Amino acid sequence: MMRMAYEHLLIFGGVCVAVWFVIIYFWPSIFLLMFKRAILVKGGADGPIPINTLYTESQALFADPLHPPAGASKLWTTGVNHDTLLTVGWLDLRKGPQILHVPDIAGRYYCVQFNDPSKNANFAYVGKRTTGTGAREYLVSGPRWKGTVPQGMTRIFSPNNSVLVIGRVLVYADSDLPTAYNLAKQIQIAPLTIRQPRH
To answer: Given this model, what pLDDT does residue 199 score?
Structure first.
């Protein structure tokens, strides 16, 4: 009887350890799938955020995160970001590269990070500390793209066709929020095929 109890205890312990390892191993992927759903299905206060589109957190939500506007997703209301406006999007590079346009940020801190969701690893950064604050364009391409990078652009090579993009723009003070928001809204994504020349 005692031996049977030990055997059951060992089996139960083994199952618990196996479940724990499975949770630890798959948790980053599960978390990113939930984040992807939050972006593409729930989106911002205006509704879902389409694939290959960047959405910037609203000024009202940034100014008063404790009293979010009706329809605001928990994606925006559970963060701990109190000094930078968030811009997020999910890229699908299977049909070709996307162009990231960054305006002249005029010395202000900003960054745009690119995450490979299959590994939950950042593979590239654009921003004040890495590329400066001048206006620039970047070609974000998937692992199988073999085209030519247009003149004046820098290529960002993605190891995966799915890319999570998270941008941040510093807000100096309450009075600076409209300026920071205007700059954040100018951080945009567009397909290479329909890119229009900028004047």
So the answer is: 43
Tell me which fold the domain 41-191 belongs to: Immunoglobulin-like (2.60.40)
Residue with tokens 């599960």: 30
Render pLDDT for 104-123 as a digit per residue (tens, 0 to 9): 999 999 999 999 988 878 99
CA 128, CA 115: separation in Å to the nearest integer?
18
Sequence letter at residue 192:
L
**Three-class secondary structure of residue 8 per DSSP:** helix
| CA 100/CA 191 separation, integer angstroms | 9
Which of the 8 DSSP states describes residue 44?
B
Q: How many CB atoms lie within 10 A of CB 25?
A: 9
Block residue for tokens 């559970």 = 78
**For the chain, domain boundaries:** 41-191
Q: Which parts of 64-176 fold into alpha helices (H)?
A: 74-77
**Cβ(190)–Cβ(98) under 8 Å?**
yes
Q: Are strands 136-141 and 154-157 parallel, antiparallel or unpaired?
A: parallel
Q: Return d(Cα 162, Cα 32) in angstroms, integer.
A: 11
CB 189 within 8 A of CB 53: yes
